[in-house]
Amino acid sequence: MGNESAHSGKGAADAGVAGGDILIVDDHEQNIELLEAYLDELGGSVRSARDGLEALRLIEAKKPRLILLDVMMPKMSGFQLCRKLKGDAATRDIRVIMITALGEESDKARAADCGADDFLTKPVAKPDLLDRVRLMLARG
């Protein structure tokens, strides 16, 4: 089941991202908790899914503005989920930032081929994540 929590504490600098619905997709609870803590200062809502299939159910129920997507997951990889989302007219405009321990250039190229809008390598630094999230939410 997805985990949903509303975050508050928006600053004037984050006015453009306020109300941004973000979906975190990662099979490790500690990664989800860390990303949720990092995103807390942005406001908006943050939901989470533990695999690609759960993410699809949550997306169908309510389309997020941005997805933070792990690559290596059971049932459906982040690459597979991203390709599916970007290939569907109803979800192709959702921004996707892939976050993974994979750091090879070929992995970044594969993420781009799947339609990912950006790519971050774990461990993710909070300032880098927040900068990328702000940029993605400001665009769409």
Task: Please tell me about this protein's structure.
The chain has 140 residues and is α/β, with parallel strands linked by helices. It is built from five helices and six strands; from the N terminus they run ββαβαβαβαβα. The protein has helices spanning 29-39, 52-61, 78-86, 105-114, 126-139; strands at residues 3-7, 21-25, 44-49, 66-70, 95-100, 118-121. A six-stranded mixed β-sheet has the order 1-3-2-4-5-6, with helices on both faces. β4 (66-70), α3 and β5 form a beta-alpha-beta unit. α3 runs parallel beside α4 (105-114). The chain is globular, with a radius of gyration of 14 Å. The two termini are 27 Å apart. Residues 1-16 have low confidence and may be disordered.
Condensed summary:
This protein has 140 residues and is of the alpha/beta class. 39% of the residues lie in helices and 22% in strands.
Secondary-structure element sequence? EEHEHEHEHEH
Q: Which percent bin holds the helix content? A: 25-40%
Biggest sheet record: 6 strands, mixed
Radius of gyration: 14 Å
Class from secondary-structure proportions: alpha/beta
Could you say which overall geometry the principal axes of the C-alpha atoms support?
globular
Distance separating the two termini = 27 Å
Strand order of the largest sheet: 1-3-2-4-5-6
Low-confidence spans: 1-16
Q: How much β-strand is present in the residues?
A: 15-25%
Number of helical stretches of at least 4 residues: 5
- The beta-strand count equals 6
User: What is the average of the pLDDT values?
Assistant: 86
